[in-house]
Write the structure tokens for this entry.
Amino acid sequence: MYLSTMDATCAEFHASDPAALERIKERLLTGPLLESVAEVFKLLGDPTRVRLLDALSHGERCVCDLATLVGLSESAVSHQLRLLRAARLVRARRTGRMAFYSLDDHHVIGLLNDTRKHVAEPDPS
């Protein structure tokens, strides 16, 4: 449940400018964009899909190569690639009957690399 500023019950008022809070609130994710961002994070919550993206960060691969890299069947890899493709995290290029997969764009590798750096940082506490 989300509280509006009217529902807030802080004992102290922490913001120096209530109008600034309203401006921020207007820029927060909502609606379909919020749902799409949450869906990407749900997809990235699965270690198999993260491994596939990591493998693809090293270059374009066919399903059989990806299956070998992540230790799954081609069928299981194809299923995961379908989900990643629907979320526009990967794309496919067909050559005859073969499909070659790659990361959809530089944002995906950036997301993967930034997350890797974040979790590798030592805990400051």
The mean pLDDT is 90. The domain at 29-120 is CATH 1.10.10.10 (Arc Repressor Mutant, subunit A). The chain has one domain: 29-120.
